[in-house]
Amino acid sequence: MTIFVDIGSLDDIPAQGARLVKTAQGCVAVFRTADDRVFALEDRCPHKGGPLSEGIVHGTSVTCPLHNWVFDMNTGQAQGADQGMVCTYPVKVQEGRILIDASLIRRSAAA
Amino acid sequence: MKKKLVVIGAGMASGRMLEHLFDAAPGAWDVTLFNAEPRGNYNRLMLSPVLSGEKTYDQIVTHDDAWYSAHGVDCRFGEPVVRIDRKNRVVYSNSGGAPYDALVIATGSAPFIIPVPGKDLPGVVAYRDLEDTQAMMDTAGKDAVVIGGGLLGLEAAAGMAARGARVTVIHLMGHLMERQLDPAAGYLLQRDLEKRGIAVHCKGATKAIFGTDRAEAVLLEDGTVYPADLVCMAVGIRPETRIAVDAHLEVERGIVVDDALRTSDPAIFALGECVEHRGQVFGLVAPLYDQAKVLAQTLLGADAVFAPVQTATKLKVTGCDLFSAGDFADGPRREDIVFRDPGRGIYKRLVLENDRIIGVVMYGDTADGAWFYGLMKDGTDIGPMRDTLIFGPAFQGGAAPDPMAAVAALPPEAEICGCNGVSKGAIMDAVAGGACTLDAMRSCTKASASCGTCTGLVQQVMALALGGAVQDAPEGMCKCTDHTHEDVRRLIRSMGLKSIPAVMQDLGWRSVGGCHSCRPALNYYLLAEWPLEYRDDRQSRFVNERNHANIQKDGTYSVVPRMWGGVTTPAELRAIADAAEKYDVPMVKVTGGQRIDLLGVRKEDLPHMWADLNAAGLVSGHAYSKGLRTVKTCVGKEFCRVGTQDSTGLGIRLEKLMWGSWTPHKLKLGVSGCPRNCAEATCKDIGVVCVDSGYNISIGGAAGMEVRETVPLASTPSEDETVQIILAVTQLYRENARYLDRIWKWMGKVGLDWIRAQVVDDLENRAALVERFQISQSVYRRDPWADLSTPSETPKWAPLADLTLEAAE
C-alpha cells in the first residue's frame, strides 16, 4: 500500500502549471491540470534532460520546454513519433492538500 | 406501548423518511420532530424559484400543519437540540427533554463562511433558508455580490438578477461550476449569464467585506472592489455534525453510518447531508431520498441496504441549459468525444472508458441528457454506436458535424476582408452574381486581393454560398483546428472572442485544452486584439516568457537587464557586478544586442536577483520575449567624427517607447549614425540608418537561421516622423502577422507595397496605428521583474517541497 506525505496545498500550483519537489530520488514535477487533477513525474525529459515542470500543460499532457517532446502524464510515455518515458509517481489531492508517495523520501533501493 | 422515535431536523431527507414510515406502517412509532428553523418541511430546492419570483413560499411547503397533526407528530419547531443523553436515551432542547427508543439525526449541512474581515456584518448572508432568501428578494435596484460560482451561487445570482439587482459573481476558480463543468462549458455558461447582465469575476479571491453598520463593498485580493448592499456567500456546505460530535458518535467528515444508516450507536441513525457513508458525503437530493427509503425500512425492522448511485446535476436558472453527470476528468484509458456547435452555443462532451460512458457534460442542448445518463448508469457498451453516439438517440447513423459552423454563424455584416472592407454578405452576393473562383471574387469585390491573409476565410464563405469547397483548404493552425492562423485572428475580431476558452469553443477546437503550439499563439492574438480587456494567460506562455529569463540547456536561466540603447552607467555596472557575485553567476557575457547577459542563474534566485537589480534602477531586458528585445546603436554625432544624427538618442527614445510590447516573434531594432552602419541596422527587423538629410528606415532584416538584408521602407527628414513610422509598422505587424513569423516572413506574404501604403502614404492610418500601439503599451509597458519579485510571488519560484531534508534525519 502506498503511504502518502503532504507536500502543500493545491492552490500552490497554478492551474495548467507545475511545481518542483526535491526528493531523495531526484527532482519530481507535480502538475495541476485545468480541471484540478494532479500528476507527479520525474522532472527530466529522457531526450536531453529538459525540466518538464517548465513545460506547457495541455489536457493531461505536458510538452518539454527544450525540444517540444510531449508526454502523457498518465503513463509517462512520450507521444507521437518520439520514443521514451519518464517515471510517474503516486500523488493525490485530499481536501485541497497534495499528497505524494512517501517512498520518495527514501533513496530508491536500486539507486 | 408505542415506541418513541425522535427526529432532529425537518429537512427534505427526514421529511421523505417520515412519509415512507407512515405509509408503510401508520402508527408504528410515536414521533417527535425537532427543528431549529421555526417551521416544518419545505422543498429547499425550490428556494431558487421563490427567490426569482416564480413561486411563493406557500407553494413549496411539503408538509403542512394538517399533515403533522394527522400523523400525530409532536412538532418542536424553533427548538434547536442542545444535547443527546445516550445513556438514558433522552434528547434535550432548551425547553426540555424527549425520550427515545430510536433517534434519527438529520441536521443537514451548514454553509461554509469564508473567514474574512466583515463576514459578520448585517447584509452578509448564506443561501440556506427562507430568511436568507427573503433578504435576497429585497435587492431590487441594489448592488449584490455573490461569492461562489457553483450551483447554489449561480442560482442565487440569477434569482437576484430576476428581482432587478445588479449582481456580480466572484468565483475563486478559473471557470464557473468547475466541479460539474469543464472549462469550455463553463465559458458558455458565463457568456449566457453575462448576457442577462450578471457580471462574473473568475479567479477572484475575496479578501474582505467593507462596511460600518452593514455590508457596503467586497474587496478582492487583486484589489478590485465591488459595491455590495448584500453579499451572499455560497462557497460550499459542510455536514452539520456538532450534536453528534458532542454525543461522542463516530464522526469523520460527516456522521459515519453503515449501509442501514445506523451510527456507531445502534439506537441512533442519521441521514441526509450530515452523514458520511463509505467515505462519501452527499449534497444532491436523489441519494438522500434513497437514504430516506432505506432508513424507513430499517426502522420497521426490514433489511435494507443503501447503495449510492451516480447522480446528475441540472442548473435551475431559466435559460441556462446544462447537464452534468458522472466523472468527466481526463484519466488513463479515458477518451473524450466532444461536439461543439458554436453557432448555437452548444457543447457536449462524453467521457468514455472501455466503451462505457462514465461522464457527460452538456450545455445549450440537454435534451439527450437523460438518454446518455441511462447509458452511463446501465454501463451499456456503446461500441456499436460510437460513431454517432454524440448525436443522441434520434440520430443513430448520419452525417458528420458541419466544420463550417463558425463561418455560417457570422452575420452578413461581419467583415471578412479588412483591407478592402468586404463583408460576408458582399461575398455571398458576389457568389450569387456568378463569382465562383477566388480570382473572380478578388476582381469583383477586392476580397483577399490586398494582403491576402483572409484568403482562407473568403474561401470558406464562398464554399458556404456554393455548397462545396472552392479549392484545397489551407493548412490549419495545429492539430486542434482546421482554421488557419489568419482566420483565427479574423474571427477573434469579428466574433468578439476575448478568452482562450472562448476561441476554442466558438471556433470548434477539437482538443480539450489546446496544445503547446496553439495556446501561445492564441494568447498573443488575444492580447494584441484586446489589450485593455484580455488578461494574459501565463500558463499558455513558453517557459522563457513565463519565467522572464532564458532557460539554458541545464535548466538554469540567464538574466539580461535592459540597457537603454546599449548605454549604461558606472552605478548600473556596479549593481550588475554585485548581483553576479552574490548569486554565483558562472558567466558574464556581452550579447550581440549590446546588453550584459548573466548566465547560469538558479530559478529560485531569479526573483531575489531581480529585486536587487530593480533597486539599482534596472528593469528586465525582455531578452527572452516574442516582443521588443533591444535597440542597438552606434555612438552617433555626439562623439563620432562621421556620425550625422543622434543615433544613440534615437535608439534610447525608441526603446523607451517600445519596451515591454509583445509582437508575433522577437523584434530587434538598430540605429546607425551613418552608412558605415556600426549598429548593423540593416540586418535587424527594423533598421534606421541616419544620413545628412535625415533617416532611412528599412525593415525585414534578420541574422538568424535566415540571413537577410532589410529593404527600404521610407526616408524622412525628421526624427519624430521616423519614430511614428516605426511605431506604426510595428503595430501593423502586431495586428496582422501570424504568430512566430518575423517581419521579413510576414512582408513576403503581404508585400512591401501594401505595408508602405498603410504606414507611409496613408497618414490617417499611420496615426491610428500609432494610437493603438500606445493604448496597448499603456497596459504592457511594465517591468515583469518588479511584478514578480514581490513577497507574495517570490516563494512560487522555489521548490514546493524538499523531501530530501526529511530523509536526512
Architecture blueprint of SSEs:
The complex is a heterodimer of chains A (about 110) and B (about 800).
Chain A: E1 4-9, E2 17-23, E3 26-32, E4 38-42, E5 56-58, E6 61-63, E7 70-72, E8 88-89, E9 91-94, E10 97-101
Chain B: E1 3-8, H1 12-24, E2 29-35, H2 47-52, H3 57-60, H4 65-70, E3 74-77, E4 81-85, E5 90-93, E6 96-99, E7 102-105, E8 109-111, E9 124-126, H5 130-137, E10 143-147, H6 151-162, E11 166-170, H7 183-195, E12 199-201, E13 206-210, E14 217-220, E15 225-227, E16 230-233, E17 237-239, H8 242-246, E18 255-257, E19 268-270, E20 275-277, H9 285-299, E21 312-314, E22 322-326, E23 334-341, E24 346-353, E25 356-363, H10 369-378, H11 405-408, E26 415-417, E27 422-423, H12 424-432, H13 438-445, H14 455-466, H15 485-494, H16 500-506, H17 518-529, H18 543-547, E28 550-551, E29 557-559, H19 570-582, E30 587-590, E31 596-601, H20 606-615, E32 628-633, H21 647-658, E33 667-672, E34 686-691, E35 694-699, E36 702-703, E37 707-708, E38 711-716, H22 719-736, H23 743-750, H24 752-761, H25 763-780, H26 784-788, E39 801-802, H27 803-807
Helix pairs in contact in B: 1-9, 7-16, 12-14, 15-17, 22-24, 22-25, 24-25
Strand element count of chain B: 39
Q: Describe the strand arrangement of the main beta sheet of chain A, using strand numbers.
A: 2-3-4-8
Average residue pLDDT of chain A: 90
How many helices of chain A in DSSP terms? 0
Main sheet makeup of chain B: 5 strands, parallel
Widest beta sheet: strand line-up of chain B: 3-2-1-7-19
Give start-end ranges of low-pLDDT stretches of chain B: 397-401
The percent of residues in helical segments of chain A reads under 10%
**CA-based shape of chain B:** elongated
The main sheet of chain A comes to: 4 strands, antiparallel
- Quaternary organization: heterodimer
The value of Rg of chain B in angstroms is: 33 Å
Q: What are the secondary-structure elements of chain A, in order, as H or E?
A: EEEEEEEEEE
Structural class of chain B: alpha/beta
CA-to-CA gap between the ends of chain B? 67 Å
